[in-house]
Records
---
Amino acid sequence: MNIMRFVIMFILLVIVYGGSHFYTAQRLYQWLNLIIPNINLKIYIIIFTIPALSMFLRFIPLPFVLKSIFNYISAYWLGVFVYLFAFTLAADLIILLLNLIKIIPTPLPQKVLFCKGLIALLLTTCIVSFGLFNANRIKNVSYNIKIEKPSLQSEIKIAVISDLHLGSVQSESNIAKIVQGINDSKQDIICIVGDIFNDDFKMIKNPAKAADLFKSLKSTYGVYACLGNHDAGKTLNEMINFLEQSNIKLLNDEYTIIDNRLVLAGRLDSSPIGGFGSMKRIDTKIFMSSINTELPVVVMDHNPSNIHQYGNETDLIISGHTHRGQIFPGNIMTNAIFTIDYGHYQKDANSPHVIVTSGAGTWGTPMRVGTNNEIANIILCGSN
């Protein structure tokens, strides 16, 4: 049954992915022919096909250099293609509407075809350029959370980051900015809520430099992390060793008591890609039953799909994973999929607070459109 489902999903992927690429390639070729008559079709197909297939080629066992090249091509092409396809389709729909109401004649004049293609390319260039620029900025967002527990007579400041995806394209370029942003805000606790890595530890360009930067993080009570769905697979041991060398305390379905004022727990992700080896996620009710709830209980759980597993024994859940869609219209989809895909949420007065960050890094394409890379700053305080 699982094999049949996989085959069906694969066929649908090929149809949608291949069909959208064929449509966009045909429209782009039509436009280029207006500028460069008799353009060589074979060369054009090769040039268009390489980035289109690079998404799949990077998963084939290849020498590291080739794998890196295809990784870069596919990352940038993904962002470019999303908007090139969207604007090309939008232009065609507008032209079709204008044609139906007799504003534009049939066949379409060459000037109309030229302007249609030019506008689609210019809009794609502008959006992609902004997305690449925006992905290199780190925003700060703040939340004040009140918890009625005696140990919170004075506030506790928590910095939250997630989804660094180390090993993906441009993933290491912002680490210094993130570290500086956290250190400048003088936090009590730093939490890294999963997807620190991007499936394969070996894809990180300079792990020693990255570890040194993480070591420079400053906080009163230390740096803690939980594993996300991409922090798994064949290089899991290398990932764990890296975190140890970086002075980051990993909580694998474990908890720690901080200064007798706060319980901080870290959960294993519920759907690791490639698995966590011998480690398995503990049933949430069993895990939470061992925790002293007289203190405020803060849980790091990478995927916000899991928030329904927690009850009033938990005060705050912090998650990532969604990227808030990362590039528009992705935020519309994540908003539809998750109960909370970004920001603060509390079902009712007896339910835990939930904060979902959009992440400090990018996955897939190194772009941010309609969302931001961010550091979430949480202030926990009592009623006074």
Note: The longest strand covers residues 138-146.
---
Amino acid sequence: MRKMHNIKIPFKVKLFLSVIGPGIVVMLADTDASSIITAAQTGAVWAYKMILLQIILIPILYIAQELTVRLGLATKMGHGELIKHHFGKFWAWVSVSTLMITCIGAIIGQFIGLAGVGLLFGIPSWITMIIASIFLMVVVLTGSYRSVERCAILIGLFELVFVVVAFLAHPSIKEIMHGLTYFPIHNSSYLYLAAANIGAVIMPWMIFYQQSAIVDKGLDTKHIKISRWDTAIGAVVTQAIMIAVIVTIAATIGKTNPGVPLNTVHQISEAITPYLGTTIGHLCFALGMIGASLVAAIVVSLTAAWAFGEITGFKHSLEHKPKDAPWFYIIYCATLIFGFVLVESGINLVDLSVAINVMNALLLPIVLVFLYLLAVKALPDKYRLRGIYAWIVGTVLFITTGFGVVAAITGILW
């Protein structure tokens, strides 16, 4: 026993474990409740025909978030503060206003997921959301950045249950391979869901969060290599979860009712029960959805509070106590409360979740243009985006933004 206590963890491992976190947290939050619902709707309506899109989005997601890593490490400024510094208050407010819209939409999505889980067990949605809101407030109001980060990762790991269930569903490899070759971009319904999937993967608040989290955690340029790995691992994990949800639904509901859209969160849970039984199936679904919803709620509310503080000059760090940074914590709590009120309005929650992600796709131009301009303008020479890679990144972001916007508008109009 004494020998076991004397085992020393290598310095490089300690360093790696101390630096990783912002990328993994933001990527686990990326696969939030509305993303899972969007992926489920995709699997129900289009089976395996959007898995290729999910794979393509892995490097695109990494490219976008890696730029936030550079910006945060090299400038030690949050995204909103950096826009204010280089483009002025007006454009900072434009960018943060866009962010606030997506944050409210994202919080609604998280409460939709939590409300759906509560209803599975006969708990009224308002009770579920009050409990969740109190928990989320306590986590942030009583913790430092590192404690909040650890809590978020622990909660978010429950999402991996969807990967396990995807294997248990025994999907047809032949059908999956066929789906990889099918890309019906002439179909407006397909385009609408494609836009929703893009908006579910590349979200404006992710860019703001990771940059602010890196600053709040106190990282600098000597951590850039590990931070890139942190982001890369997170990008693969989040897309694996999205693909797992699509596969699970396509192999179950997609088989029994092909092409029929989902109307309730409860229907998604029914895809799991044939393989695990009703009780265990509902429990696994609940754990995955709770993990997705809570980690995203923490991230989104913190993003709103950080961004507001960055452009107003108010104190905006988890290292400050509520009495020292009242506006930071007021914005955090107000975002949660606003989402709670809107979800209780009684509209179709699955349709709303998809619509939220379509909105994210429509707002991508504002966010990604600022991200790109900052990467070529605000960074020191050593880390500045330039040369062939700058052209590649610009092209990738332009095509992604263009496809997302065109697909969203086409899907909405037709």
Note: The two ends are 68 Å apart (CA to CA).
